[in-house]
Amino acid sequence: MQSSNGRPHGDGGGSENASGHHDGQGPASEDMRYRDPWYDALASGWGEGEATGAPVAPVPAPRREGQAAPRVGAAAEVYLEVQRSAAFQEVRSRYRRFVVPAVAVFFVWYVAYIVAATTAPGFMARPVAGAVNVALLAGLGQFLTTFLFAWAYARHARLRRDRAALELRWDTQELTRGAAQGGAS
Amino acid sequence: MTGDHQTLALLLFSVFVAITLAITTWVSRHRQGSAEEFYAGGRLFSPLENGFAIAGDYASAASFLGVPGLIVLFGYDGVLYVVGFLVGWLVVLFLVAELVRNCGRFTLADVVAARMSERPVRIAAGTSSVTVSVLYLVAQMVGAGSLVALLLGRTGGAAQAWTVIGVGALMVIYVSLGGMRATTWIQIVKAVVLLGGTVVLTVLVMVRFHGDIDRLLLTAAQHSGHGDAFLAPGLKYGGDWTARLDFISLGLALVLGTGGLPHILSRFYTVPTARAARRSAIWSIGLIGAFYLMTIVLGFGAAAIVGPEAVRGSNAAGNTAVPLLALNLGGGADSTGGTVLFAVVAAVAFATILAVVAGITLASSASVAHDLYASLRRRSGRQRGEVAVARVAAVGIGVVAIGLGLLARDLNVAFLVGLAFAVAASANLPVLLYSLFWRGFTTRGAVWAVYGGLIPALVLVVLSPVVSGSPDSLFPGVDFQFFPLQNPGIVSVPLGFLAGWLGTVTSAEPPDEAKHAETEVRSLTGAGAV
User: Which residues span the domain enclosing A81?
Assistant: First the structure.
C-alpha cells in the first residue's frame, strides 16, 4: 500500500526543504513506517494524483552537539526541533487550513440556525412544500452539512495529513530515543 | 398496564442484564488489573467497534425517551435539541478526538497536565469531570425511574426509587468488575439493540402513514392542538426573550459540550491510534445522525398517533412518549403485538440507560482515581492501588447518582442532560482547547479556565428557576432565584474562556515553550502516544 506513492524525496516543496538532511533518517525503515494496526490502504487512486499528500521534508537529524545535554533536556530539544522543522509546520498548517475555516463555517451556520429559530419564527414557519417548512429544511440541512463536513475532514486528513504525520511520528520517536541514549552515554 | 406487559418487559430486560453480566464475567476472566486495561480496555478496539460504543454511550435515555417526548409536547422545538446533539460532534471530530488520543492516557486531565504543573491542573480538571459525569448520571437515573413508573403502572413511589437503586447497583457491578473492556462491549450490544429497536419503530411509523412524511407531519400538527405552529419553532422557546435566550444558551451548550464530556473523551483512548480515533468518530457521527433522524420521526409519530394529551397524562415531562407509541403501533394495549413491542421498547430503554450509566461511571471513576486520588495522595505510584481506588470510586459515584436521581425525578431527561452539557462546555472545553492550541497557556490559566467555567455554571444553575422560585423547580417552596435562564451556557462558557485567558496573562510564570512544542508535535503526529 505504501510503495505506490511513497516518499518523493525532495520534490513537492523544494523551498521548505532547506533544512532537510536526507540521510539523517536513521533506521526508520520502510516496513517500520506503517505499522499502524488500522492503517488500511490509503485511498488507492482517487484524489491522490496531485501528490500533495506526500510529506515535504524529513525532520532534521538531532544535532550532534545536543548529545552532551542531559536526558530530559535532549528530549525537549527534540520536540522543539521537530516543531521547527518544515515537515511538521506543513502538517500543522494543512491541519489548520482545513479545521479553522471549517469550524468557523459550521459554527456560524449552527448559531445562525438557532438564532433564526428563536428570533425569526415567522420566517422559519414559512411553508415550502406541503407540511415541510423552512425550519424543517434548515434542520435537515444541519444534518446534511454535519455529514458532509465529517466526510470532508476524514478525506482531507487521510489524503493530506496521515502519511506525513506518521512519518513524523516515527522520525520523532527515533530522535527522542536517540536523544535519550545519547544523554545516557 | 396489564400484567403481561410487565412480565414480558421484565423478562426481556433480565435477558439483557444476564447477557451483559455474562460479558462482564467473560472479559474480566484474565484480568490483570492494570490501569491500561481498566481505563482503556487495552486500547485494541477497532474503529467500527468503538464507533458503535460511542454511539451507545452518546445515544442516552435523553435521546431515546426525552427528545421524542419534547417533540410530542413542543413540536419543532424538540428537533432543535437533536441538531445540537449532532453538530457538537464536529467539534469532537475536528478539534478533540485525534489530538486527545495522541496526547493523553486515560482522562481529560492527562492532556492538560502534560504541559502544566501537574497537581493543581489534575485536581481542577478531575473535579470538573466528576461534576459533569454526576449531572449526566442523574439524567439517566431519572429516565430509568420514569420508565419504570410507566411500566409498573403507577407514577412515583417505591417502584421508581427501587429502579433507580437497582440501576445504580448494576452499573457499579459492570464497572468495578469489568472495567473499560466490559463497558465497551455493553455499549456495543446496547447500540445494536437500540438502533435495531429504533429502526423497527420508525419503519412501523412510516408504514402507518404509507411512507408519506407530509401526512405524518400534518397529522402530528393536527393532533397536537397547535396546528401549523407545531411544525415551526417557538412553542417552548418562543414566548418572552428570556425563553429565547434560554434556548440559544442551550444550543451553545449542546454544540460545545460534547467535546468536553469525559465519558466521550475516554472512549477515544480505547483505540490504538489517532487515525483509529478519527475513524471511530466518523462511524459514530453516521450512527448517531441516523439515530437522531429516526427519533425525530418517532417524536412526530408519537404526536400523530398517541397525541400529547395521553403522553402528558402518563408523564408530565414527556419521557414516556416512545413506549406509548410502541404500544399503539403494536396494535393497542390489549393486543399481543402491542404487549410485545411495548416490552421490547421498555427493555431497550432500560438497556440504554444501564449502558450509558456504566460508561459515565467508568469515566468518572477514572477521574477520581487517576486525577484526584493520584494528585491528592502525592506519590502512590502503584498502578494496582489506583485501579482499586477506581473500583471503590465507582461505588461512591453510584451512591451519589442514586441519591440525586431520586431527588430530581420529575425533571425532563433531555433538559437535565442539557445542564450536564453546559457544565462540560464551560469547564472542560476551554481548558482543553487552550492547552492544545495556545502556545502561551500557563498553569494558572488552566486552573482558572476550569474553575472559571465550572463555578459560574453551577452557581447559575442553583440560582436559576430550575432549583427554586417556580412551581416546576426542584424546591418549589423556597425562592432564591436570581438568574432567569434555565441553562447557564451562554454566560458560563464565555466566562470559562475568559478566565483561562485572564489567568494566563496575569500569571508570573512564563509559558513552557518546550512542553508546548511537545504537546503540539505529539498531538498532530502521535509521537510518543501510548
Answer: 14-23+58-184
